[in-house]
Specification:
Keywords: Hydrolase, Protease, Thiol protease
CATH class: Alpha Beta
Helix content: 25-40%
Oligomer: single chain
Structural class: alpha/beta
Shape: globular
InterPro entries: Nep1/2-like, Papain-like_cys_pep_sf, Peptidase_C48_C
Order of helices and strands: EEHHEHHEEEEHHHH
Number of domains: 1
Protein name: Ubiquitin-like protease family profile domain-containing protein
Number of helices: 8
GO molecular function: cysteine-type peptidase activity; deNEDDylase activity
Family: Belongs to the peptidase C48 family.
CATH superfamily: Adenoviral Proteinase, Chain A
CATH topology: Adenoviral Proteinase, Chain
Length: 214
């Protein structure tokens, strides 16, 4: 069965892959098989999985649902219970996936993914993969939009690029053996990598090797 937009849908809608409390269903795999915008569910699953590849306690990959609420919560005081478990003060590298949806009543809204990255040693926030509208979070730090980042050439690959760049940054931080820019950060590393994450997400070892369970 084919839905509007060219996404081929299978009859089975149940869970395909489990990782901790996160689940990918057949509908998510259908999205990965075609040129489509990656939804919140896929980004959330990938950001839950990625720390198993880069287990450093200094790295924090913030789930998109948490990043969204940090950016849009109208009551700052109520954020304390959400933020405290993240232990931000102990993290050296923080990566926030940000969707441009600003309507808290609309599930899986928006049409563009970006990244906000904080590197503590340089006390620097970087906006990656397009404009991010939450720079107020970085008011105590330097905030710079990164223009050297590989850019998508279509209207749907922002999530794919964001996921791949997040992985590249984690790899840079853990190895520190990759070539750095003049400021000692990761931008040269990202420009040297080729991004094939859609296939890796769809056919990668965390799906194949575990036969539907992790």
């Amino acid at each position: 069965m084919v839905e509007r937009g060219g996404v081929e849908k299978t009859v089975y809608k149940g869970p395909i892959v489990h990782y901790n409390d996160d689940v990918l269903r057949q509908s998510a795999l259908d999205i990965l098989r075609c040129p489509c915008f990656l939804n919140d569910r896929i980004i959330e699953f990938y950001f839950s999985y990625l720390p198993s590849c880069y287990p450093s306690e200094e790295i924090l990959l913030v789930l998109p649902s948490i990043a969204f609420w940090i950016a849009n919560c109208p009551d700052i005081e109520s954020l304390k219970d959400l933020i405290e478990p993240l232990n931000l003060s102990s993290k050296k590298l923080e990566i926030f996936p940000v969707n441009n949806n600003d309507d808290v009543t609309e599930a899986e809204g928006g049409n563009h993914w970006s990244l906000l990255v904080f590197e503590r040693n340089s006390n620097l926030y970087r906006a990656i993969v397009g404009y991010i509208g939450i720079s107020d979070m970085a008011s105590a730090c330097t905030y710079v939009e990164c223009s050297k980042t590989p850019q998508q050439v279509n209207g749907y690959n922002c999530g794919l690029y964001g996921a791949a760049i997040a992985k590249a940054i984690c790899s840079w931080y853990e190895s520190k053996s990759e070539p750095n820019d003049d400021d000692g950060l990761w931008f040269s590393t990202m420009n040297e990598q080729r991004f094939r994450n859609r296939r890796k997400m769809r056919d990668g070892p965390f799906i194949q090797e575990h036969d539907g369970n992790i």
